Every structure is written in structure tokens, then in C-alpha cells.
Records
---
Amino acid sequence: MSEIKTIDSQKDQKLKEAYFTAGQGQLIWARFKKQKAAMVGAFVLIFLILSGIFAPFLTPYDPTIAGRNDTYLNGAPQIPKFCDENGCSFRPFIYSFERSRSIATNFRWITEINRDERRYVEFFVEGSEYKYFNFNVDLPGDILDFRIPGLTFNTHLFGVDEGMIHIFGTDATGKDIFSRTLHAINTSLAVGTIGVFIAFVLALAIGGLSGYYGGWIDSSLQMLTDAVRTIPGIPLFMAIAAFIPDTWSAEMRFFVISMILGLIGWPTLARRVRTHLLTERNQEYVLAAQLCGASAGHVIRRHLLPSFTSYIIVDLIITFPYMVLSETALSFIGLGLKDPVNSLGVMLQSVTNADVMLNYQWYFIPVVVFIMLVLAFVFVGDGLRDAADPYGDAGK
Amino acid sequence: MYKFAQFTMVRAGMALFTMIFVSFIVFSLMELVPGDCAERYLAFKNTQGSPISIAEIDSERARLGLDRPYVVRWVDWIYNAFQGKFGDSCILRVDISQLLGQKFWLSLGITLAALLLAYSIAIPVGIISATSNNPYLNNSLRLVSYLGLALPNFLLALMIMLFSTMVFGESLTGLFSKEFRDAAWSFDKLMNFLSRAWLPVIILGWSATAFAIQTVRALMSDEIGKLYVTAAAARGVSGSRLLLRYPAKHALTPIINSLGFDMNRIFNELPIIALILTLTEAGSLLIEALARSNDQQLAGAIIFLLTATIVTINFLTDIALALTDPRIRRSIIG
């Protein structure tokens, strides 16, 4: 009996020791694991990010006009099936179809499905080529250009033996909505990353200066921050975006737009960095370090920065969906990204007309994917915020 | 009283600084647009069949005062802007204040209504969710406010449009019916306006409400844990009396403080919603000015007016707070 007890208490001791010696990362992870919603969010997020990264492999066709299916414009989603009235098949299949239009149908394409003719889904098919690690930077000036050829593949996860398969349907030009959606996740993540990065650098510099020095530097920087916050962001963005000449390439537009998002988005982050620094600066451990004779640089590097990196990471994750959404809103009204680049906003550009609303509702499928993406970000961000708060447990 | 006057002066000075700073940014942006008013006007004339020369552009420039140095024109612009004179629109050749006039007030009204809606829902709901221990209530409220963030206004507007066209076969667009669009204001027109304006107000209020609920909830849960609440409870104050008199009162201060920025956020969305719901009377003028015609004078005027409104609201809320709370006065003048 007593033996068990000692083992138990030893175990307890070990657990306690592990708790007290755990790094901040381990503590956050331990608290984060307890939150179900945040964990689900994290899995969804990882899943979506991976499907964004591997979009060229997971999707059957090229998302640009090159991958269009001109025999199936505005086509409804084709759901692969295993069984129908003609019996079951081990391999999923879709049906072949006939399309026609005439004055009787008001010149709208009418699809007639031929249920007797099956098209079987195949896996790991060869299709359009795509590249990874391929960088082609073309900035003004020859020195800044560089090219890395990267790796070329042409295997896609699935396809059909005959014709094409569109599990989310096609749009007005016959582009596969499934392929476009997954590629759009990629774009949104890239825009968010660039935007957040720029906002973060600015916020760290301005908020850091303001928080570390305090006094009049703080007051004047705060006035500047407040002034920038007062400018209505989207109208301002629209003003800037309207100046982008039409002759710029889609990639150039993409970079500029992400940059502007970052340039507008810094004030909120900067305020948080400042608040963190202001409170941390007066903590006892900082005073202790200073009394031990640590230099300012040492205090900042070894004590202040580690104390709020976790908060900053959380803030970045929380800011992320806002960047993605701003980009979507702007592309939607036609001031953001343009066609060869795929983003949710670009895909939604045409949905306001009544024709789409009444007849082609599958245009809205990507919206669901995006709501999932943003929700996942919000859940993870919120879970991390709770987990990163060292006093979070005490309140509950 | 002296202190209060001092506070008002300092705060007004800060507001003025913000306005001047913003006007500088806006004016610089207007300058960055390729081409100026003179070129644009004459280019327009060119399309009407009368050929133009460089000399004509220069004389037009001189007439519009565009040949003066940058800073002089900026000072001139803000001097006039503060008096409500924005000059003529580049493309439409109409006085901007006349062009905006009613439209601006309508947009402002819709924004304020959305803000009011957001807080009239968020304050009670936020307080309830911060105090209740019911996990279902809390989780469902949490989900709703997350959805408010994840389903932005313009997607919500699209969904409602999709739904209404599928179910009613009619999209709920525009602020007025046809017969009232150009009519003078009357009781009927007001009624017609109200019968249509609720939709943009609700759509605009949607994510604002979600955001406000989160803010109210966070502030309330912070305040509830504080010692003065425990002390009051120990004295025997309880129930809603305890909540409303102590923590709610304190939680309200930061909310009032940020009203201006909340309004900014709602205003941000207005142009996009206006585009979807085709509210030609409201924010879509901005999109028109920028995206379609590149009318920098008009766009500058709109952004200036928006900022002026937000700065004014921030100023007024600060004054109102300072009237009730002496600590705020001290925070600025030290």
C-alpha cells in the first residue's frame, strides 16, 4: 500500500516538476490541447492549409483559362457515385452528358445526363503540368530578377477516363470551380502572410519604440497611430488600388495589394505590442535583471522578447483572417486581384447578377470553404489567446 | 471647471492635428493619381470632338490653380474643406458638396443606425453571457460571434440576396422605390425609405454586433472579477442592481471611448454593401468615384468627410466621458 503511495507521490512530484520547468511553449500547448473547439479548428486549419499547398496535385485541372472545359460552361457539380439502378461499381463514376440549347430553352444550356454511359474516376492520372519551388521574380531592374526552375510534375490525384470531372461544377468560362477553390486558398494564405508580415514589422518597430521609450516619443507615436486608425481603411485602400495601372501583371498587383493591406493593418498590432511592452517593462523580473547589472540589450533580448513572443504569435494569427477577408472584399468589388490569380473575391465577382443567383448556385460552394478557413483561424487564434494567458486558469 | 476647459482645448487641438494629418495623406494620394483635373477635363472634351493642345491644358491648369506649388494647394484645399467647400468634381463637373449633400447624410444615418443596433443588442447580450454560467448559452453566443467574424457583411448580403431571389423572386435592393427616388422628402418618402433601409442596417450591423458582443463580454468578465464588485456584493447589493451599478458602469467607459473607431469599421463596409444592394444613394458613390472614373477630387472629399465625422465622434465621446470621469481629464493633461 505504502509503496503505491510513494510511487504515486513520486509521479505527482514528477508531474509537478514537469509543470514548473516546462517552457512557455509546452505550457501553451498543454492548455491548448484541453480546448476542444480550438483543437477541431486546428485540424481543419491544417487540413485546409495542406490542401492549399498541394492544390495543384489534389485538383484535376489547371485553375486558369488553360484548364477550362469549353463543352461544359456553367455546368452543375458532378458527384461521383458508386451505385445506381444499373448496379454497383467498385470504382466511382460519373455520367456522360449531352448539352444543347435552342430558342425553346431561352438559349440557356440544358444538360441531359445519359445514365447508361458511365465515366469512371481514375486516380493518379497524368494531366496539366505544375511546378513547385519555382520562383520567377521580375522586379523593375535586371539585378533583382532571379529564376529558380524548380520541379515539374504532372500527376493529379484524380481524373476521369473520358472527358472531364467537375465536382464543384464550372463557371461561365468553363473553369473548374474545385480547382479554383483550392488554388484560391493558396492565394489567400499568401496574401495574408505577406500582409501580416509587413504589418508585423511596422507594428514591432513603431509599437516597440513607443512602448520601450515611453514619454513624448510614446505620446507622439500614439497620436500618429490614432490618426492612421481614424482613416477609413477600405475607402483609403480603394483610393490606392484605383491608382494601380491596368498594365501591371497579375503577380505584381498581387504583391502590391498584399503590401497595402499590411501598410493599413499595422495600428492595431502596434497598440498591442506597445501595451505588452509597457506592462512587461515594469515587471519585477525586469527590475531584478537590471539590478543584477544586465544591459538594456540583454534585458530586451533575453527577458522582454521571450515574454511576449507568444502573445505576438497569437495576435498575428488573429489578424490573419482579417487580411484574408479584406482581400476578398476588395477583389470582390474589382479593386483587388484580377483574373489569372485565383482568390475567393475574384471567383465571386460575377455572382451578384440574378442569373447566377437563380440558376448557378454552385458558384457559392467556395464561400463555404472560405467560411471554414476563416472560422478555423478564429477558433485557433482564440484558443491560443486563452492558452497563452498565464492567468487564464486562475479565473476559471 | 478650469481643468475641464483645459482638457477640452487639448483634446480639440489633438482632433485638429489628426484632421490636418489625415488631410495631408488624402491630398497626397489625390496627387499621386496619374493625370490631373485639367488633363481629364480636356480629355473628356476631346471625346466630344474638339481637339486639344498642350497650351490648352496649361491654360486650364492655370485656371484651376493647379500650377501653384504642392503645399500651397494643400493649404488651400484644407482651408476650403473645413468650410465644406470641396470644389468641382473632376469628371462630373458639378459642385461636390451639392453632389454629396443628401447622399452623405443618408450614408451617415445608415451607419449610425447600424452602430445603434449593434450596441443595443450587444450590451444586454454581452452582460448576460459574461455573467451566466450556462455552457450552452455561452457556447452558442460564442459561435454566433465567431460567425459574425467569419461571415463578413458582404458575404451575408450575398447570401440574403441569394435567398431572397430564390424564395421571393425579388432582390431587396435600393433605398427607395422608383417613384420616390427623385421626389422631395415627404412623409411617404420617409416611410418608403424606412421600409427598405432596415436591410442594409441589419447587414451592416451584423459583424459589428458580433464584434461588440465580444468586447462587452471581455470587459464585463474583467470587471466582475474585481474587488469592488466583491465588496459591493458583501455589503448586500445583489442581482441586476449589483451588475448595472458597478461593473457595467465601468465596462461602458472603454466602449464609449471606441465608438468612433467602431463607426469607422462600419463605414468601411458600407461601399461594398452598397455595391451589392445597389444603394446608389449611399456609399457606392465612392466606388464610382474611384474604380470607375478615377475622380480624385470626389474621392478625396468623401474620405475627408468620413474622417471628419469619426474625429468629431471621438472628440465628443471623449468630452462626454471627461464630464463624468475626472480620471480621463487627467490622462491627457497630466
---
Amino acid sequence: MLEPLYWIIRRDLTIAMRRRADVFTTLIFFVIVVSLFPLGIGPEPETLRQIAPGIVWVGALLASMLALEQIFSADHRDGTLEQMLLTPQPVSVLVVGKILAHWLVSGVPLVIMAPVLGLQYNLSADVLLVLMASLLLGTPALSLIGAIGAALTLGLRSGGVLLALLVLPLYIPVLIFGAGAVEATASGLGGQAHLSMLAAILVASLVLAPLATAAALRVAED
Amino acid sequence: MTPGSTSPSLQIDRLCCVRGDRTLFHDLSFAVSGGELLHLKGHNGSGKTTLLRALAGLLLPESGEIRWQGENIRALREEYARHLLYLGHHNGIKGDLTAVENLRIAAILDGYALDEETAWRILAEIGLRGHEDLPTKHLSQGQKRRVALARLLANRATVWVLDEPFTALDVAAVQLLQDVIHRHVADGGIAIVTTHQEVAMIGANTRTIELGRRDA
């Protein structure tokens, strides 16, 4: 069971390495969105510090949603997805592999970039650390939940907009606890509880989302 | 086929498929067993592809059953997939990966390891010598089809479901593919093939089913 998982991740990472432009669009989008706010709101350090967690998190959320559409669409177009459904491997395992590879390519760069952007908002070192931790727990959950939407809207003509409508409401808990963890740390309360909730959401979506995604993919190929 | 094992059989029982609100076929029943080649014919839109996708388990038929060794393929699912090789309109290969990488990934997902050396040999056999480590997006249409067909040479599946396998192939490749299919059938496998072209699919055990005859 682990061998196909390893190979599907390796396959998707190889493809991502060969078309690097797609990888960078997500990251650059995140950097630009988050950098726009200080320019629009003005350089008042106290205001910036207060809005930072929400803005970085919303930026990461939108960036990760932007990348979602690509997760299955290319495989759907060239027929490799239908071949995956016909292999003796459990489809949900292959789905986990694809989501994991997708997160490594689109989610991890966001986690790494976040503290650099946080500096723009005058965040202290321990807050930056919690910001990274919250994104590290939150972005894979976003990819997992988003994959369900991506599978459901596969092959639809205006899939992008529909995908946003489907997925954004489901992102709300992740956003609340993610931004909440950073805020709580900044105000001195400690973000432990929020991070635990994020971890719980991650575990729950890791268990449920691949099954739902696999079912949706079967419907999409019908 | 290991000697002594029961002969493979695929049974189609009163199958009915609907696309949109059009019934493509209904009450379609036939059986194919090991060593048989089934040639599906029919005009455009008669439901050949739909039937093949149903046989592969990709598509849920409106009613009726498809049974592999006496059991519904819906219940068998992965167990049936182990015995099946389906090749549809899409080649199912990634343009960013090389022919060798495509072939090896497909093999691993199909549940067996294919070493680098064997992959190169198979690709040479199918006429892709010198193109093995190019990203397949740089290959011609016919060459891409050959990469997809290379899976037939690597695979150990019993049931081959091939949808228009001869499209985009040149004369030599058509000849090669016919040989490969006939060899598979002679070895006790099942092949279910659709073609538009009048390719000579006539072999020892060829049966023809024509879909969409308007004689009702």
C-alpha cells in the first residue's frame, strides 16, 4: 500500500519540477496579496500587528484554493486519472498521494514564506513561530478539504467559480483556528488550544476527505 | 494463465446503458471466455465506447450486470482491476514524463515492478527506439499511442479492453498490434476491441458483435 503512495508522490513531484511556473504562481500570488494590505492601510505598526494574522491566513487560504484546480484537471484531461481508477490500488490511497504531493508543492512554500511576510507586519519572533506552526497544520487540511471540491467540479466548464463556492465555506473553521492561534499568542494567551483544534481538523480531514474525494472522482469519470 | 486455473470468463447479462435520455442499448447479453477475441462494431454513437467503459467498470450501467468469474465487477472492484487492462480514447500518459517513466509508473500502479531495462526493451520492441527518454509531449500522435500500447507488452492482465487501438498508427504498428492481440488471445486471454477501420481482426477465435443495428 505504501509503494504506490510513494510512486504517485514521486510522479507528481517530478511533473511539478518540470513545470515550475505553476508552482511559483501560487507563491507569488500569496506574497502579493499579503503585501498589498500594508500599502493600502498605511504604516501604522499597531494596526498592522493586529490585522496580520487574519491577512496572512486569508492570503494563504486563497493561494491554496487557487492551486486546487490543477490537482486533478491535468490527469483528467490526458486520461491518466481514469487509468488510476482502474488500478488494483485503493483509489483513496492514490488520492492521498496526489494531495500530499500537491501540498508539498503548493502548501509548503507558503509555510516557509509566511514568516518573511510576517516581518512586514511587525510580528515578534514567537508569534512568527506560531504563525508557521498554524500554517503547517492548516494548509494540508485546506488541501485535503479542497480536493473534495476539486474532484466534484472536475470537467465542469465554470468549475473554478463553483469550486470556490463549494470550498470556501468549508475553509472557515481552519481559518478561525489558524488565525486565532496567532492572535492568541500575540495577545499573550498562548495559541496551544487553537493549534490542537487545527491538528484535530487535520486528522479528521485526513481520514474522511480521501474517501469522499475518491467517490467524487468515480462519479466524475462516469 | 497458470495451468490448472479455471478459464477466465466475462459475462454480460441484460446490460442496458443510457446516455442523457437516449438508450444506447438494452438487454445486451453475451459472454466472452479465455482465448476469444471480441470485435465490437457499430456506427458512430452506437454505444461502443459506453459499452467498453461499462466493461472496464468506469461507468455504471442503467441495469444489468457484468460478471467476472461469476461475480459482479461492482463487488469485485480492485480484484477485477487486477485482471483488466483498459485503453480508452485518451492515451493515459503524462506529457511531462518520458516514455520509460510513463511505462514504469503505469506498471507499479498496476501492481507489479517493471525494471528500467525491461521498459527500454519493450519500448524498442514497439518501435520507439531513440525516443525512450524524451518527454512524451514532444512525440507525434502515433508515437504517443505507441507509448500507451507498450503497456500491452508489459502487462499481465487477462482481459484487454481496447477502444479504437488502431487510430493514429501507421501500417507497421497496426501489424504489430494485431500480432500482439492475437498472441494474447492464443495464450488464453480475452480481448475486446472496437475499430472503425476494416482491420483484419480475423483470427482463430474472433467473434463480432454489431451494436445499434436498426432492425427492431
